[in-house]
Amino acid sequence: MQWLKRAENKNLKITNVGALDGDSFGITLESGHTILLELGDRIREPAFAALIESGDFGKPYTDGENLCWPGGMSLTLEEILDMLLSRDNARQSQEHYREE
Q1: So what's the pLDDT on residue 22?
Q2: Which one of 4, 13, 66, 99 is separated from 60 by 20 to 30 angstroms, measured CA to CA?
Q3: Quick check: 31 and 94 in contact, CB under 8 A?
């Protein structure tokens, strides 16, 4: 995840996005790195529920800066990176807690 911390200060572009199983998406960046984004609890948000109900949840696309869905729902790359960093920090805290 070290590249992710360095990437926060760069202008990254999303080049490709694809729906995977369940609540997961594969996001490819211009740098060649690939992000596995799992929405987790966010999937319960009303906007995502509407996408699932409409059948558009599995139809993501990108404009280079956002992960988008038909109908206007989107996540910015900054939001995606924040989600990944907060999960990584939570995971590290859990591991530290188990060691004590």
Answers
A1: 84
A2: 4
A3: no
Calculate the CA 67 to chain-centre distance.
8
Q: What is the mean pLDDT of each run of 10 residues along the chain (100 residues)?
A: 51 92 92 91 91 94 96 92 77 50
- Closest by CA position to 42, among listed 31, 33, 51, 30: 51
> Which token pair is 14?
């999303």
pTM over 0.70: yes
Q: Name the residue with tokens 């070290």.
A: 2
Question: Which whole-number Å values give the CA distances from 47 to 29, 56, 63, 80, in the listed order?
Answer: 25, 11, 19, 16
Neighbours of 43 (CB within 10 A): 14
User: CA gyration radius for the chain?
Assistant: 15
